[in-house]
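Subgroup meeting minutes
Present: P.N., E.W., G.H.
Scribe: E.W.

1. P.N. recapped why we're keeping a running log of single-chain structure predictions: easier to compare across weeks, and new members can see raw inputs and outputs side by side.
2. G.H. added today's entry (136 aa).
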Amino acid sequence: MTFNLKAIFQRDERYEGVRRINIYLLRLLYILMFFVLGKGTWTHILTHQGPWDPTDAVVWCVWTAFATLAGIGIIRPVKMLPIVLLEIFYKVLWLILVAYPLWAKGTLWGSPAESIALPFYGFHCPSSLCPGVMCL
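Output recorded in log:
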């Protein structure tokens, strides 16, 4: 068995005609979401003390469900593509609704939103993994 670099850039019918490189990158994204985000969210939920604030509980439950569903994406990367699209959509929406007005006023940097805005600027990374968006 030899490694063929060209083969990873060819469409694969096992994955509905999506290039293998896209499948490998999607799996990498799902693995990161499952283990990195999942570790943080599950740890927070399982070690939480006292009564939950209802809004805060919803946020943590959604993030935990999101990370847990990414585990299915490791096995079925194309079928779980909607959670990648959800990630892109909520990040872009947050950047438009929250970060842009602060940036336009020159108050984003140094505000509490800065720590969220910096990772969210990377929304284009998951979008480049989506087979329908990728221009290879």
